[in-house]
Amino acid sequence: MNLVIQSPVPLSADHRKPLAALAHGSPAVVIDEHAIRVDNVNVAQRADLEVYCGTHQLDYAFVEPGQRLTNFGLVAMDMDSTLITIECIDEIADFCGLKAEVAAITEASMRGEIKDFNESLTRRVALLKGLDASALERVYEERLQLSPGAERMLAGAKAAGLKTLLVSGGFTFFTEKLRARLKLDFTRANTLEIVDGKLTGRVLGEIVNADVKARTLRETCATLGIEPSRAIALGDGSNDLKMMADAGLSVAFRAKPVVREAASVAFNYVGLDGLLRLFSA
C-alpha cells in the first residue's frame, strides 16, 4: 500500500523522514505543499502513524497503488456537518429558543447513542411546531457555510467524470438550494410540512434514515449503471455508516469516533478536497 499524509497548513519538510521511517516505506514524495506520499508502506504500522499524526494534526490514508479517481463513478455526501459546517435542524431550533435541547438530541443520535433515527428526528422536528417558515431561509442565508474544500472537491470529482449525490437526514429546503448552487446531480432528504407559512412539527413521507441513505446510494449507482463499489461515500455520523459500508471507498469527515473507526479514510483536519490528494499516486 501507499501512504498519503496531509496537513491543513503547509506540511513541514521535517515530517518527511520520520513518517517514511515510521511507515517502513520509500522516501517521501511531495504531492503539493500540503501533502506527501510514501510508497510501499507496512500497514501494520498504523498504530504508530496514528500517534504521530494525531500529535501533529495530520491526516493519513492507506491507498492502493494505481488507484485513480476516474475508477469511481459517484461521490455520495451527507449534508449536515459534512458538505456544510452546521446541523441545520439545530440552527432552525435556535429561532424558537430550543437550540441546546435539539442539539443535544442531534449529537446523541450522530454518536449512535440513540439507535432509532426516525424517533430522534421526529422528536426534534416536533419541537419546531409553530415556527415561522421564514426561519429556514434565514438559516440558509445567515448561517449555512460550505465545509472547507467542498467546492474544490466537487470540481475535481466532476472533472474526473463522477456524478454527485447529496443524501441527507436533514431537509429538502436546504438540499435543493445546494443542488442548484453546486450543480449536484442527485439529492434525497426529508420534507418538512409547512401549513399557512408555519412548520407543523411533522415530516412528510419516508424519513431518510441510515437504511434509506444506503438504499439511495445503491439505487443511484443502478441508475448510473455502476456497482456500489465504484461509489465514494462521505459522512460524519452513525446515520451514514450503512451508506459508507456499501461504497467502495468511505471517508469519515471530522466524524464521530464510531464513524472514524469504520471508514476507509478519516479526515480530522484537512478539508473535503483532501479526497483529491488520495489519487495523486
Could you describe the 3D structure shown?
By secondary structure, the protein is α/β, with parallel strands linked by helices. It has two domains: 1-65, Alpha-Beta Plaits; 74-220, HAD superfamily/HAD-like (Rossmann fold). The chain has 13 helices and eleven strands. The chain has helices at 16-23, 46-56, 79-83, 88-94, 99-110, 117-126, 134-142, 150-159, 172-182, 210-224, 241-246, 257-262, 274-277; strands at 2-6, 29-32, 35-38, 59-63, 74-77, 163-171, 186-195, 198-204, 231-235, 249-253, 265-267. The strands form two sheets. It has a seven-stranded mixed β-sheet, sandwiched between helices. It is elongated, with a radius of gyration of 20 Å.
Largest sheet: 7 strands, mixed
CATH superfamily of the largest domain: HAD superfamily/HAD-like
Percentage of β-strand residues? 15-25%
Q: Which structural class do you get from the secondary structure elements?
A: alpha/beta
Number of domains: 2
Architecture blueprint of SSEs:
Elements lengths: L1 E5 L9 H8 L5 E4 L2 E4 L7 H11 L2 E5 L10 E4 L1 H5 L4 H7 L4 H12 L6 H10 L7 H9 L7 H10 L3 E9 H11 L3 E10 L2 E7 L5 H15 L6 E5 L5 H6 L2 E5 L3 H6 L2 E3 L6 H4 L4
Helix pairs in contact: 4-5, 5-6
Which terms would index this structure?
4-stranded antiparallel β-sheet; 281 residues; Rossmann fold; 41% helix; alpha/beta; 11 strands; 22% strand
